[in-house]
Each structure stands twice: as structure tokens, then as C-alpha cells.
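My current task is to audit a protein record that another person submitted. Please read both lines and tell me whether the C-alpha cells look consistent with the sequence. Do not assume that whoever made the record got everything right. I have pasted the whole thing underneath without changing anything:

===
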Amino acid sequence: MYWYHNMNLSDSDIELLARTETIELMMKNRITVDFGDSCKLNNGSVVSGKIVLTYAAFIAGTRTINYTFENYFYNSNGVTGGGEIFRERI
């Protein structure tokens, strides 16, 4: 099931994702990708759990996006932790 709130994505924008996950915008600064108990991606991999992304507004042309894994599994292997993505407008 797809659930997009104010997102302008087409199927070609999300080819890797399967049709069984939920993408949820919780506020202007949080996105949760919920794969449920089991979701087979278009590349054949099986994932479950959630990936949560949080971010703030652009400041001086840059933004940091933080991501964390919540009970996330990739091909039956647990994935923990998270990280940062630094984005700069050109």
C-alpha cells in the first residue's frame, strides 16, 4: 500500500520500492518508510521494519537529513543505527 501525503512521486521515481510499503509524512520534518512485517522489493530483496528520516529547513543552502532504522531487517539480517546525509543546494 502506498500512502503519499503531498508528495509528487511517480512510479518511475520509486522503482526500487515495492507496492507493499507505506510512506508516511508525519510533519514537515519527518518521513517514515514502513515496510511492515515483510516486503519484497522489486530487486528481489526482502525487508521489514521502518526507516525514519528527520530533517530541518535549509540553512545557508545546506540541510542535514538524519536516518534511523527501527526493527529493520534486510534479507533476514538486522540493521541497526543510522546516519546523516548532508545536502547542499547548488
Summary: The chain has no helices and seven strands. The chain has one domain: 11-88.
